[in-house]
Amino acid sequence: xxxxxxxLGYIGLPTAAAFASRQKQVIGVDINQHAVDTINRGQIHIVxxxxxxxxxxAVEGGYLRASTTPVEADAWLIAVPTxxxxxxxxxxxxxxxxxxxxxxxxxxxxxxxxxxxSPVGATEQMAQWLAEMRPDLSFPQQAxxxxxxxxxxxxxxxxxxxxxxxxxxNDRVIGGMTPVCSARASELYKIFLEGECVVTNSxxxxxxxxxxxxxxxxxxxxxNELSLICADQGIxxxxxxxxxxxxxxxxxxxxxPGVGGHxxxxxxxFIVAQNPEQARLIRTAREVxxxxxxxxxxxxxxAVADCLTASGKRxxxxxxxxxxxxxxxxxxxxRESPAMEIARLIAEWHSGETLVVEPNIHTLxxxxxxxxxxxxxxxxxxxxxxxVMLVDHHEFKTISGDSLSQHYIVDTKGVWH
Length: 417
Ligand code: SAJ
Description:
Keywords: NAD, Oxidoreductase. It holds the Pfam family UDPG_MGDP_dh_C. It comes from Superficieibacter electus. This is UDP-N-acetyl-D-mannosamine dehydrogenase. Its EC number is 1.1.1.336. The chain is 43% helix and 14% strand. The protein is α/β, with parallel strands linked by helices and 417 residues long. The strands form three sheets. An eight-stranded mixed beta sheet has the order 3-2-1-4-7-8-9-10, with helices on both faces. β5 and β6 form a beta hairpin. α1 crosses α3 and α9 packs across α11. The longest helix is centred in the middle third of the chain and has 32 residues. The structure holds ligand SAJ.
């Protein structure tokens, strides 16, 4: 039995590797030739703890190989990106391209699973694309339980940085277009899953994925809104949250510089795009979180103004150091990072030097190159007048109070208070 995974990115590659590690024949398909070549050498093109070892063993054992074109398989998993188009509308072009690429090699009895985060109805739409290209086969939308092809939506819910653990341990929502589709998809995931398969229909499963990330976004927005209110009231928001969380039914998340990454800042918009009138809280949460970097910039401007008044320096003589660029602590992923955005806006506005400390990277990304200087923690502490804490990486939390005391500080993570 062959399993084919379309899209070998942050989700597809770990999933392909998990099946291969259980001695299943897996063919990974990606349009990126570099990714395909790298994987076929037993290496990986993305950063994720332990993924390298699993991929290496799978390729060397002959269980996993990658290709740029689909070949016949018994089960297909589609894990391609679903970015935005226009004004926060989900763009299904990659799912459509993936469906159309497997349609010619689909055979009777195959199972097709969509894993990509998608708007409600996407699985039925995918089934339609397949049916249009293969009139010789029957699909669940017409043939129900008797269909030649089974189709399900089974979202991933793994946390970047812990993918190899969560992929296996987390419960999995299985949204089949029919009960038979769900049963077959559950059977497939049970090959490596230690968590439970929880069965529903495809539309509920699609909405479930969007709901999980919106839940987190709304809760982070609550914390971010509190941080604005507390700053205005002269209250330490981190102390406030610690105290409130002593209530047995209160569990507030942590404020920060904004919400980054390619999921939580994106997925809630899929709900808003489909239900703009009803999704008022979800939209507002997005706006609250997206506004946070601008608020941080205003705090930085105020700190620089204080520094100018007290030191008598000219603005061009003031050095600002940004601590952290990644979208969350202890990773090197800069995608959709509010910290990056803040560093860029500071460098754009500030006439003096902008320093950046990011222990997880060796060179500055293009967006900042030429505008900021990458330095280590010690140099930033020695040279800068204003320190901006953006990401609570381990190494920043241990900086002593003494080395901070001579600086003007904007701390978006509450680790230096
Ligand atoms: N953040 C805060 N305060 C917090 C927690 C997080 O500001 O208290 C910020 C982080 O700094 C980061 C952003 O939110 O910028 C998102 O980080 P995250 O760790 O909450 O989530 P992701 O984006 O790494 O992964 C999420 C997870 N979803 C949920 O926890 C509901 C993961 O399980 C999903 O699989 C993933 O999105 C995805 O691929 O959809």
